[in-house]
Task: structure prediction
Amino acid sequence: MFSVLFSGQGIVLAEEDQYSGDLIPTMTSNTAPSGTVTASSIWSVKNHQPFHAFDDSDGMYGWCSAEGALTGWVAYEFNNPVKIEKYTLKPRKNNIDGVKEQPKTWTFEGWDGTNWVVLNTQADVTDWAMGQIKEFTFSNQTSFNKYRINITANNGSRKFVTIGEMEMMEKINSTPNPEPEPEPEPNPTGDNALLVIKMISGLEKEFELSASEVQEFIDWYNGRADGRGKETYMFDKDFNKGPFTSRKDYVAFSKIQSLKSWNIPNNTMRHILKNRKVPHLFSSNQSQAKTIIKQTRLYRKTYYIKKI
Result:
């Protein structure tokens, strides 16, 4: 996506900022599956633990401060430093005073080991609506392990301040090419593979990779299952559209539901890249598929790799 900027008598296409998906995994406790969630206070030990602000669910109560605490903070600590430049907030579904409990004035901060560094400030945010996600972006040049939202006023509730869901993202950098060359016709070589990743949201991502690149992804996936490595995996996209020298896509381990990979002849891969779908011949060849070479169950996910 681009914005049109007018410079003198010329017209310049400027790329709009792009961001990764949520870098925080779907939390099932304050310390699992990875990272640590803390808060200034909680109202109920059973239903209002701070990790519920990061559990990717509207079915729970989110985070709620102790009764009478009209200010407070919620923090998430990553295992490794990351450079957050976007966050989202969503009102909790199960509440008492509706939007009155939502944050009105706050700062978003990073912990440098000694002090909290203010990265973003919001004031008089009153237009909350149930089910509506608000997005906030800012410029940040420093990677921190720990971030928090520090709320100094709610929207009028005399009992609590609450957050339903919160996400954190990093900016994806892509360098504009001042003189873009025509888009090359895809011409993959070598042992090609089509990797299809299905996310828990239902979205499917497709990547044309070499067999060695698929193996690198598998190694990362299995490492994350054992608690090693980064939460997200970065794909360098080939055959970019638009004036870029590079384009990247990030996939979060905790957001993956399942994945499949096929080895594909070059001419078939060209058909897929051109039409963006697997041709019908694959369904007729399924009976000829070799034995599934790997199947593991991790965090209630099923992982498959198939060769044809």
The first strand starts at residue 2 and ends at 7. Helices lie at 211-225, 266-275, 281-285. The radius of gyration is 22 Å. Residues 192-305 form one domain.
